[in-house]
Write a structure and sequence with these properties.
about 20% strand, eight-stranded mixed sheet, four-stranded antiparallel sheet, about 325 residues, single chain, Rossmann fold
């Protein structure tokens, strides 16, 4: 079998020092294969976005630092690269779609310039050809009247259209990996579906791998091949999307699923929220970090920290109560 495109090994990312230090990502490992869509799921504060920023080497330093681990992309450890070297990869071989396109796009520059600039920089195309490519990309993401839109500014677009522009920018240099950090935040349900369908279709056409970061397990069911569930800075369950929905093992994963509205449930059924609040990352509970909120907690959960254990060869979970081999 070919090697994974991206291998994250024992990654630990921390903010600050001393007693107030926050370990936002705590010793996590995962792979992304060529052309695969991996979803990283969890509540706000679970470490999803910090994982993405660590891969892209976009952590604000100080206070954020990668304390340990490897981020091996196509045989190169990104964590060891200098900023000048990382710039040749960022936006070229790995692209990122951020949560809020209005704050990610430069309000003073036209969208044509913002899409054409990475093409000119990385692919060394003359500006006119870069603009032609930008028009082609806007057509590809189904932007109406693409040529005239090149001279428009971000404020002239709706949220859904701005997200299409971000997708066009991410595809500009034909990257091998796209990281989409909650790309449908603040969009209405219909536009969410359009954006996600477009993103999945384009990555399938180009063979680009995709890391989809979301808190919505409903999104994962349709668009992901494999899923990592994060809680308290750790991966607490990982499996194929089909297997995770058929046999969720960790109580936290089951809690996330129980809180999602379902069309196959009786009308009037009440959603079951997960009680309590996500943990304070600077003062995690002893043992399993989910134990204060878990309805299945046993004494061992309050003392021993579980690591990922096998349920089967492709389904792992970190839970003392769930079955494992």
């Amino acid at each position: 079998m070919s090697k994974p495109l991206l291998q994250v090994r024992n990654l630990t990312t921390r903010f600050g020092d001393g007693l107030g230090a926050i370990t936002a990502v705590n010793n996590i490992s995962f792979n992304v294969d060529v052309g695969e869509t991996l979803a990283i799921v969890g509540e706000s504060g679970s470490g999803k976005s910090v994982t993405a920023l660590s891969i892209m080497q976009l952590l604000p330093d100080p206070p954020g630092r990668i304390m340990a681990g490897e981020i091996v992309f196509d045989g190169t450890d990104l964590a060891k690269l200098k900023e000048e070297e990382m710039r040749t990869i960022r936006g070229n071989q790995i692209s990122m779609i951020f949560q809020e396109p209005m704050t990610s796009l430069n309000p003073s520059l036209t969208i044509g310039l913002q899409i054409a600039e990475p093409i000119n920089l990385h692919k060394k195309l003359p500006w006119q050809k870069a603009y032609d490519k930008a028009e082609e990309l806007l057509n590809r993401v189904r932007m109406p009247d693409a040529r005239s839109r090149l001279s428009a500014h971000p404020y002239q677009f709706s949220g859904g259209m701005r997200q299409r522009i971000m997708i066009a920018m991410a595809l500009a240099c034909q990257p091998r990996l796209i990281i989409a950090d909650e790309p449908t935040t603040a969009l209405d349900v219909t536009v969410q579906a359009q954006v996600l369908e477009l993103l999945k279709e384009l990555t399938r056409e180009t063979g680009t791998a995709l890391i989809l970061i979301t808190h919505d397990l409903g999104v994962v069911a349709r668009y992901a091949d494999r899923v990592c569930v994060m809680y308290g800075g750790k991966i607490i369950e990982t499996a194929s999307a089909l297997d995770l929905y058929a046999r969720p093992m960790h109580p936290y994963t089951r809690g996330l699923m129980a809180s999602i509205p379902r069309l196959d449930e009786p009308a009037g059924r009440r959603l079951v929220p997960i009680k309590g609040q996500p943990p304070n990352l600077s003062q995690l509970p002893v043992g399993c970090s989910f134990n204060p909120r878990c309805s299945e907690v046993v004494d061992r959960c309050r003392h021993d920290t579980p690591e990922l254990m096998k349920f089967d060869d492709k389904h792992l979970h970190a839970c003392w109560v769930a079955p494992h081999v």
